[in-house]
Structures are given as structure tokens and as C-alpha cells.
Amino acid sequence: MLQEAQRRVGEFLSPCTVEQFLDHTLVGGFEQLGHNDQASRTRLLGSDPQALLLQALHLAPKLTFHSANPLGAAPSLDAVASAEDFRQRIELFHSRNYSVRFPELRPVSPELDLLARAFEVLLHQPVTTSAFWSRGGMRAPVHYDDHDLLVVQLLGNKRWYVSKRPSELNNTWKGIPGEAPQLGPHFTIDMRPGDLVYLPRGTHHSVDCEFESVHVAIGFTPLTVRDAVIATLDHLSDVDQNLRKTIGGRLAFQLIGPGFERLAPPALDAVARLSEACRTPGFLAAALQRRSARIAAALHPLVSPAQVPQIDRETMLLQAQSAFCHLTANPDKIDFSYPGGHLYIHRGAQESLLYMVNTPRFRVRDIPGSIDDAVRISLSRRLVEVGFLEVAQ
Q1: C-alpha to C-alpha distance for 110 and 339, rounded to whole angstroms
Q2: Helix (H) or strand (E) holding 205
Q3: CA 342, CA 355: separation in Å to the nearest integer?
Q4: What's the first-to-final CA gap in the chain, in angstroms?
Q5: Taking the model in full, what pTM does it have?
Q6: 359: Cβ–Cβ under 8 A, 6 or more apart, which residues?
Q7: What is the C-alpha separation between 65 and 91, in angstroms, rounded?
Q8: Which of helix, strand or coil describes residue 147?
Q9: What is the per-residue pLDDT across 67-120, written as a single tens digit (0 to 9) for each?
Q10: Strand partners, 391
């Protein structure tokens, strides 16, 4: 729920507030967000981050690494045979001055998963998580990331060098590469456990460390002007068939010769139609509501039960910890968008559904609305099946 997401993110960001972060930090540049050695920040990978990372054997094919001062070629990550083999390969990376990046950590850390979900509830954007494990002597090359980062130091100290040059807010796709990035004038920040920094996408930076270090990076891209415009275009194309017509059947030929002028009239007409639609009261709001419905369904999925328990009118239900939904509707049906998909529910169950998504814990018999117990049980079962609700033990 929104209030729970605010609380969890607020604890993590403190002493920075949620309002400061959303209204000022995300539209500013690089910022140090302060020290906080509470468990909400320092124990995102538990009390022993190295042990947790070494247990993530399934991530071996997805690990990446970097170093500006390697002592030899990077080891292979092919055919890791056992936990001991995995540990030895990580040690080999470290002995050659490589920092190892562990991606997709949400399934192995419940605390990190809940924090990432809380950010998703606030931002209506997908959130990624990764950890970087380094040993002393490693230096990273100057680089930038194509998404915003919140970096929290969990173990050891690490020195960051962050460019003072404002980020160009690069798009995510790759263009023709230019010269190797240069750091130029920069800030120097010594990170210790509990420290947190924010780096906008495109911010050039580098790091080094004297001793062993583990930090976590939480990645996301807030809603951009481009995202909002795409949402309006998608929404208009749902109601205006002119935007769905084929115009590029001969594109392969047009790319090697004349003929692009044929594309201009329909493209200009579409831009004019979109401009007019965006001036219509309520159009932008509706477009962003529909966008959020699609985003919610595409988020890291909820955990569905292998078998749905027996449910009757006396069953106590509660919302799963990582449950989140976004509701939109037409005159006939409600689109219940949740992480992992959509349920389409008759509009007659609106009062009942609103109660279920806004009440953390309830009995089936307490669900209001002009429905009978059979419908209450059926609706409850559907929300348990997708992992939004759980049967209380």
C-alpha cells in the first residue's frame, strides 16, 4: 500500500525525506543523502553480505565485472560446478583486481525485494538491484550508467570520484560511441557503511578501494517527458485508428533511396492529432493511468502459491508483503493490474474489490458489496491465486 511504501522508503532515505527525494533530488544532480547505519539501510543483504552472495550460485552466468587495473585476464564463469567452485572463481576475480557485480538480487534478499517494491509503488517504474563486491587495490574505469542509482555502502570503505559536470541524461539505447569518458573536475567521496548517494543516469564516475568492500545499487529511471509523451501517443492510438495504419511497407527501399516524403503527411497529421488530444481536459491523466496499469503488470512478479488453500467465508486473508496493484476501468470491467499480469473483474464488484485492496487484513465474510458469499469466495480465490492475498496462518 502507498502508506507502507512511503514508510519503508522514508526509513531507508533518512535523514533525507521522501518529499525531498521525489521533489528535489530526482530533478537535481549528484547528491550525498547522508549517513544512516540503521538495519533498513545496512542489512539489505543480511548480516553477512559475502555469504549471501556466495549462495547465489544460480547467478554465475549473469555476473559481470570491471577493473581499470587488472592483473590478468578475467576468469571464466562457464560451467560452475558447485558452491566451492563458485567461491574459488570469485576469489580468482578478486585476486586479479576485478570488482564483481551480482545482478537480480531481489529473490535472494527479502529486505531488498521489499525496498525495491516500495520504490516501484512510488515511482511506477521498474526497479533493479545489484551488489558490487571488491577487494583492496581495485580501481574501476570511468563510466556512467543509463539509469539513476541509489548506492548504499554495506561493508568496508570505498572512495568514489564523481564528475562535477551535469549529466546529459543519456537515453538507454546505444549510439555511435565517442571518445573514452573523462572524469574531469570531480567530487571525491569516502563511503563507509550506512552512507548513501544518488547518481542521476549519465553521471560519469569511478571508484577504488583499499580494503574489501560491498555496496548495493538500486537502479531506476523516473518518469521522463519522453515517457509521458509516449503514454499519450499509446492512449490516442487506442481510440484513433489513423495512428494504427501501416505507412512503412516500403521502408527497406526508402532507406536506400528517395521516398521518405510519403511518410511526412501521415506523421505530421498524427502529431497534430496528438497535440489536440493533449489539450483535452483529462486526456493526459487517462493516458498516464493506462501507462501505470501496463507498468504494474510488467513489474517483478508476485509469488503465486503452488496450491491455493481452501477458502470459505470464515477465512482470514491478508495482503502479501510485496503486493501492489493499480486499478483502471471502463463502464463494464475493472482492470486489476498487479506485478505479473492483469485480472479483469466485473464493474459490479467494485465496492468489494476496493475494500479488498485497501484493507490489509479481513475475513471473507466482511467483504462488502451487493454480492453473495459465492462471489466473495471466488474473488478472494482469484487474488490469492495471483499472490496478491495470502491466507493467514
Answers
A1: 16
A2: strand 205-208
A3: 18
A4: 21
A5: 0.94
A6: none
A7: 13
A8: coil
A9: 999 999 999 999 999 999 999 999 999 999 999 999 999 999 999 999 999 999
A10: 317
